[in-house]
Specification:
The protein is an alpha/beta fold. Helices cover 34% and strands 14% of the residues. Helix 1 packs across helix 6, helix 5 packs across helix 6 and helix 6 packs across helix 7.
């Protein structure tokens, strides 16, 4: 395919064409990842909008994309969508199973027009299974995989990790992995295929290491009782004098030794290798952290190998010296936002365009994709 943008920030996927049927959540985020990496992503918006209740100008998941409006409930809209699919490398949809087929833009319809097409399907439950036809959200998907049940205090309910674990980690990232793998296969063999990315599958896959530890007897199947879930007093969060929090991850013994020394409890801390004394150790650590403010403790541990960091808010994070030095966040169009990741030495990505406004790029897409009818009423 011919690239529609070039230059120093074209990205490793420059020249790859992606069609995204508008939705909310993990599908748009996956398409944003592809766009951040340089793909020419055309988002097909609905005439009545996608349903996200924010101003499109602030919908960062639509950055680096272009938008056209098609009514897939009409023959003309379906025809235009299939013409886009015919010229694309990747096609992404996030409908419930069977909806794309009923609209006439399912895998069979699109692959008939373009046998090399990678057709990515993003759902919560997957294309098959007893729950595949039912509604759902991130919290339910991570609930049945065991992921939600392992997060939170031992004496309280599971802690909801926003929608990061299911929608984006178990969903978007696995869709992107699948699409890129299938794209490599298509370019090698000329054969396209369908990628069924289900949030339940991806989230379950994320727990692989924990399942290994569980089988080996190194993980208890309950919250707040393990090395990495807050059960260990040297891996968790502690409140400071001003109501802030510090995150402690002093797992290795040499890092732990530096941690206790800087905290000021090296001489009186109970043995860390005796789980029976973990409650006593946690109390000692908590008491010390409550003696100073978050800023004071941040200064104490700065530059050390104690593996301690301040717990920052979303608005505070971009100003952290390390993130600022790396440019982990960028300002574009008046919006502070995470920069594209990961980074590439030869083909860096960048925020090239602000969030696409529905239908604003129809004329440009019609020209670049050689679809003159797309720009005609």
């Amino acid at each position: 395919m011919t690239a529609t943008h070039s230059g120093p920030f074209a990205g490793p996927l420059a020249g790859v064409r992606v069609v995204e049927l508008a939705g909310i959540g993990p599908g748009p985020f996956a398409a944003m990842l592809l766009a951040d990496l340089g793909a020419d992503v055309v988002r097909v918006d609905r005439p009545d909008g996608a349903g996200l209740a924010i101003d499109p100008a602030y919908d960062i998941t639509n950055r680096n994309k272009r938008s056209v409006i098609l009514d897939l409930k009409t023959a003309a809209g379906v025809r235009a969508a299939l013409e886009l699919a015919e010229r694309a490398d990747v096609f992404i949809e996030g409908y419930r199973p069977g909806v794309a087929e009923r609209l006439g833009v399912g895998p069979q319809d699109c692959l008939a027009r373009n046998p090399r097409l990678v057709y990515g399907r993003m759902t919560g439950w997957g294309q098959q299974g007893p729950l595949s036809e039912t509604a759902g959200h991130d919290i339910g998907y991570i609930a049945i995989t065991g992921a939600l049940g392992m997060i939170g205090p031992a004496d309280g309910p599971p802690a909801v990790p926003a929608n990061l674990v299911g929608d984006y980690a178990g969903g978007s990232l696995y869709l992107v992995i699948g699409v890129l793998a299938a794209l490599q296969h298509a370019r090698t063999t000329g054969e396209g295929q369908v990628v069924d990315a289900a949030i339940v599958d991806g989230t379950a896959h994320l727990t692989a290491m924990i399942h290994g530890m569980l089988a080996a007897g190194g993980w208890q199947d309950r919250r707040g009782a393990n090395l990495l879930d807050g059960g260990a007093p040297f891996y968790g969060t502690y409140e400071t004098a001003d109501g802030g929090y510090m995150a402690v991850g002093a797992l290795e013994k040499r890092f732990y030794a530096e941690f206790t020394e800087l905290l000021g409890i090296a001489d009186q801390a109970p043995a860390r290798d005796d789980p029976a004394r973990w409650a006593e150790l946690r109390t000692a650590v908590a008491d010390r952290f409550r003696a100073r403010t978050r800023a004071e403790w941040t200064a104490v541990f700065a530059g050390s190998d104690a593996c301690v960091a301040p717990v920052l808010s979303l608005r505070e994070a971009p100003a952290h010296p390390h993130l600022a030095a790396r440019g982990t966040f960028v300002d574009h169009g008046g919006i502070t936002q995470p920069a594209p990741a990961p980074r590439f030495s030869a083909t860096p990505g960048a925020v090239r365009r602000p969030p696409s406004r529905p239908g604003a790029d129809t004329a440009d897409v019609a020209r670049d994709w050689d679809l003159p009818d797309l720009d005609r009423p």
